[in-house]
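User: My instructor asked us to take a sequence, write out its structure as tokens, and then describe one feature of it. I'm not sure where to start. Here is the sequence I was given:
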Amino acid sequence: MKTIAYRASATLLVILLGLGVFSLLVFAGSKSRGPLEDLASGVASKVAYLEKSMAGGDSRTGRAASLQWFDRYRTQTKLLNAPDTLLTGVYDNNTEESYESVTTLEDSLGMKLPIIHFYTAWGSRKDQGFPQLRAQTISDLGSVPMITWEPWLNDFDPAVYPVVGKPSQVNENGLKAIAAGKYDAYIDKWARDAKAFGKPFFLRFGHEMNDPYRYPWGPQNNKPADFIAAWRHVVTRFRLQGATNASWVWSPHPAYTTYREFYPGAAYVNWVGITTLNYGTVAPWSKWYTFDEIFGKAYAEFSLYGKPLMISEIGSLGVGGNKAQWFKDALASMPFKYPAVKAVVLFNNSNDVSTTYKALDWSITFDKPVLTAIREAVGGWHPATGSPAL
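Assistant: Let's start with the prediction itself. The structure tokens for your sequence are:
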């Protein structure tokens, strides 16, 4: 009876705290920035913690227990930056509300994934600050967050971050503005909140910066020297705030050979990430490429940086070839053929609109031949690497 009463009281407290957060933000409106916003975020974190504590039989506990071998990596930045095993991970586009889609994929693969990846953009909106709740949830699950941090500059409040020139041109020379300190207030707040999170996490800033088509921080708007200056400036601001728990992932696109001049330097990079996506024959500009044709050509040079390599997005469409065989060929010999690779992150995106006018489906959750190919390929790593990936 006491247990029931306790649960009922705690549940009521969670509801009241949640209503309090909502009321606080509604009342404050645009004035909720600064200390008031920090207070609201802190209360929201407590609400999430209470919800977790009161969830009887929380499945996160069991998942975290199965990833206990990974604890020493996800709690020590030094070890995370020099793993002695090959880590696996996933980006899933259906994780904004919960991570059920990730656990469903894991059940199908028969393995738990130490890295959970998501994207967030720069800006003044409340959801563009450091994603404390998402990061904490991933940590509670026993994994480490990997955040791709995209420096879109369109969403900043012009009253706080004045725009020079037309608002539509804010991304032109945007990296130069970052390096000049125009966004330091945002960067410093993000860094302080990252420090408060207190656990190691991957931070993949300004990914595919050498792609001149898709992202405004690319070479169509910025010079390579501006990217390097912006990268070093952001890393330096984090260090000044004490946010040394960020593991910096420099992630160019291997399809463009101009990545060399974008490297910020060994002192500012912890990992080198490489996008490896096979578009098959989905568009006139693409064809079916094997994994070795996409990744293998660049591997020798990427490994010269002396950093652990991460395949930060790995995936294949099914148009133009055998998707399951592509994954088998890519993964089966990974630790033997490409020993510098220390992390592989699946791109399980069912609604990719970043490249073509039509959404592309990279998902593998319900593709049994692909799941079997991945499971068998990764299973072959265990004897050679000692990796408890399964």
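For the description part of your assignment, you could build on this observation: The beta strands are 87-92, 115-121, 144-150, 201-205, 246-250, 271-278, 309-316, 341-348. Try explaining in your own words what that tells you about the chain.
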